[in-house]
Write a structure and sequence with these properties.
The complex is a heterodimer of chains A (about 140) and B (about 230). Chain A has about 140 residues and is mainly α. Chain A has helices at about 1-15, 25-35, 35-55, 60-90, 95-125. Chain A contains 5 helices and no strands. In chain B, helix 1 packs antiparallel against helix 2 (about 30-50), helix 2 (about 30-50) runs antiparallel to helix 3 and helix 10 (about 205-215) packs antiparallel against helix 11. The longest helix of chain B is centred in the middle third of the chain and has 33 residues, at about 95-130. The chains are: A mainly alpha (about 140), B mainly alpha (about 230).
């Protein structure tokens, strides 16, 4: 039920007005049955925005790092979806999107290691992980 | 790109799981719960990778993120004390003003991205949208050409082969740079997470700081004495 509702909303937002022949309901059914590139992109966009909201609103620095991982994952999802789309349309260098995703994962791993090292050093010195209490650089 | 019958069922299941798990990551009060929800979100995204034919990246995602990064996160959560938010005595979100501002910003971002995707997909639809049946037929033909596994029930994907080929042929320099980046990250995180004692015993501390700190910490006195003898 939730599935249907959600996909209907997504579909309505994306493709309202593009389908003329089979009518809105038929187009909706077709769109749900055959998810295409744009639905992957919408999932990626929603994950990205959830991540941005997490970075902006949470106080716990570790949860902020997790939200950053969510953002990077959304970017990866876009890369992979685009790569698949290009593969199916017969582009020459379609696999490049997957290579980018590998590098994004590498950078995310490095970032997590450094960031968590900083968190540990910070906690040792300031005894807090709330970002609004870490204000040494504030004027 | 279009998915057919069963694939689309899995697409909706995993896509919605990824989004809800992501939401719960941001909303959860306990940081450990956040980490567990993030793991389920990452696994769902890995399943979406499998659906779009990137099996190698899906494997890397599970191995590196879930097996490596998230374990690191859980270790750090347990190292730093986060008792206050579990008990519910502390506010987990920023000030009301900041939350409102960020939610407005995110809402605008949602509208912008959905508009962009809508615009782009209509252009793509006009340009070259192959027929769904035709595509699935083409896909099954491609799958049929793949080698069978030993039991004969499934096909072996060529994705890993293709990624390795392109990675070492066209992206070998970035690959090496990435390895240096990882080395720097390892060294940097070890340096950052050292305690004062470890810094002092590696003779990597300012003598002034050492003298000041050794007043509070009896273990540092010996190191300070050794340093002053030199």
């Amino acid at each position: 039920m939730v599935n249907h509702l959600f996909s209907a909303i997504l579909f309505f937002l994306q493709e309202s007005g593009t389908e003329v022949s089979t009518g809105a309901f038929g187009a909706m059914k077709e769109g749900v049955r055959h998810p295409d590139l744009s639905k992957f992109l919408v999932i990626g966009a929603l994950l990205f925005i959830i991540g941005v909201a997490g970075v902006l609103t949470r106080r716990n620095i570790i949860v902020i790092f997790m939200s950053i991982e969510l953002i990077l994952n959304a970017a990866n999802l876009n890369f992979i979806a685009m790569s698949r789309y290009l593969q199916q349309t017969g582009s020459a260098n379609a696999i490049a999107g997957q290579i980018f995703a590998v590098f994004v994962i590498v950078v995310a791993a490095a970032e997590a290691a450094i960031g968590l090292g900083i968190v540990i050093a910070l906690y040792r010195n300031k005894e807090t992980i709330w970002v609004d209490e870490i204000d040494l650089l504030k004027w | 790109m279009q998915l057919s019958s069963w694939e689309s069922v899995f697409f909706w299941i995993f896509g919605i799981t990824a989004i809800f798990a992501g939401l719960l990551t941001v909303m959860a009060r306990n940081a450990v719960h956040s980490a567990l929800f993030l793991i389920s979100s990452l696994v769902s995204v890995a399943a979406l990778f499998v659906l779009s034919g990137a099996e190698f990246i899906a494997g890397v995602q599970i191995l590196v993120y879930v097996g490596g990064v998230m374990v690191l996160f859980l270790f750090v959560i347990m190292l730093v004390n986060v008792g206050a938010e579990e008990r519910g005595s502390d506010e987990i979100f920023n000030n009301q003003r900041q939350v409102t501002a960020s939610l407005i910003f995110c809402f605008l971002l949602v509208l912008g991205i959905l508009y962009a995707v809508n615009k782009g997909s209509t252009v793509l639809l006009k340009q070259n949208q192959p027929d769904a049946e035709q595509l699935s037929e083409q896909q099954s033909q491609q799958d049929g050409a793949l080698k069978k596994s030993a039991t004969g029930t499934s096909r072996i994907s060529k994705d890993t082969e293709a990624v390795g080929n392109v990675l070492y042929r066209y992206a070998s320099l970035p690959f090496e740079i990435a390895s240096i980046l990882l080395l720097v990250a390892i060294i940097g995180s070890v340096m950052l997470a050292r305690t004062l004692k470890q810094e002092a015993s590696a003779d990597d501390l300012d003598p002034e700081t050492l003298r000041e700190e050794s007043i509070h910490d009896p273990e540092l006195i010996q190191l300070e004495a050794a340093a002053s003898q030199e």
